[in-house]
UniProtKB/TrEMBL annotation:
Any single GO BP term: negative regulation of bacterial-type flagellum-dependent cell motility
Lineage summary: Bacteria, Pseudomonadati, Pseudomonadota, Betaproteobacteria, Burkholderiales
CDD domains: GGDEF
Annotated organism of origin: Rugamonas apoptosis
Membrane-crossing segments per the record: 50-74, 80-98, 110-132, 138-159, 166-185, 197-222
EC category: transferase
Catalytic function, reaction form: 2 GTP = 3',3'-c-di-GMP + 2 diphosphate
Known EC number: 2.7.7.65
Keywords from the UniProt entry: Membrane, Transmembrane, Transmembrane helix
GO cellular component: plasma membrane
InterPro entries with a match to the protein in the record: Diguanylate_Cyclase, GGDEF_dom, Nucleotide_cyclase, Rev_trsase/Diguanyl_cyclase
Pfam families: GGDEF
GO terms of molecular function: diguanylate cyclase activity
Span of domain GGDEF: 255-385
Protein name: diguanylate cyclase
Amino acid sequence: MNQVSEMLWHRLMGLMPGELKKSELGWLFSPHRHLSLLARRRAALIVNRVRLFAFLFAVLTPLWSIIDFVVFPFPLWGQLAFMRFAASAAFASLLVYYRSNGDLFNAYRAMALLFAIPTVFYVASHSLLAHYQLTGMSAAIGAGYAFLPFVLLGGLAVFPLAVAESFVVASPILICHAVSGYLRWAAMDWPAFTGAFWLLVLITGVAALAGICQLAFMIALVRQAIRDPLTNAFSRSSGMEILDLHFTMAERADAPFAVAFLDLDHFKRINDGYGHEAGDRALVTMTERVTQHMRHGDVLARWGGEEFLLIMPGAGLEQARTAIERLRGGGFGERPEGGPVTASIGIAERRADHVGDWKRLVELADQRMYAAKQGGRDRVVGGEPAAVLAPSHPTMPAIATTAPV
Ligand SMILES: Nc1nc2c(ncn2[C@@H]2O[C@H](COP(=O)(O)OP(=O)(O)OP(=O)(O)O)[C@@H](O)[C@H]2O)c(=O)[nH]1
């Protein structure tokens, strides 16, 4: 049984958008493990789509008043026109005033507002139309008002949403439809009700599929944009974005936040003695080793040629030192001429070093890395003399303390 379900699962996964890595497939179903950079870009995209939608609806909603004017009696067309202009003004306000701040909840709120406007319009217009006995052409146009829930669910397709998000957004509409059916139980037109409900479920499914196809494409694009192509570590520009994000969060919560600047020792000798490709291989191995031993949630960014920055949200100086010792214990790879690849490392921490912005934090870690070089390489320099740690490999000479920078 297990084998059958596993085979089915693999077959099904084979149909998923091919741009994705296996580890990213789960991201299509739920957003809770998305990278912060992906979440930020997605939040911005969702808000932009909301505003685009708002623009379209702000223009189109009042235009229909012309049809209402032609087919409906007074005062119905006047009341509907008033509601249409109010809805249009609400859409226009959303377009003009709503901006992304990079926060996903801010984006969810934008979607909720976008969907709330037509929902209120739908409820109000529906109860208004129920007071009139419409016939002929006006009855047909009046029936058109009932299509709004279908339009709303179809509109979901323009957002890059995970499956869980699509269903959370769609569920109020589906639930309302089911509840309205329950309330009219006795006089229910069952075939019409079931047909409409089935259509709503179908549109939700198609919209959810469109959402994950967009999301998959976005995950692949963001991955390419934020990763260094050689080592697969984060690129410098995305590292800066992550620093900015986490530093601000740490400041707000008055939480610790550490970075370590790593520079490989005598790297030029590898290039000079064994060629650029051997150098590249050493960089890739080093990144793999660090990624393997670093804590989940920490971020490794390639800052320059053989310089890396390890970003450690939530880590104080002590924890950062422990983390770095773990990395050094795991090693950074082997040099082609024999012996271990080593690194000079500088650590800085927001609170312990009384630093007010991330640029200064990185600068401090860089200066300490330089102090580690001056002190004889293969060592760590933190905020005070006690932070100078012994070389990780007995083959390298241990050189005594370096003054704090
Ligand atoms: N193979 C390879 N080499 C690179 C890459 N980026 C930078 N480098 C090389 O890295 C070397 C860095 O050399 P240096 O800055 O002199 O430093 P080092 O030899 O490591 O010496 P110390 O840092 O003082 O221990 C240079 O030879 C660069 O050409 C890369 O992507 N691939």
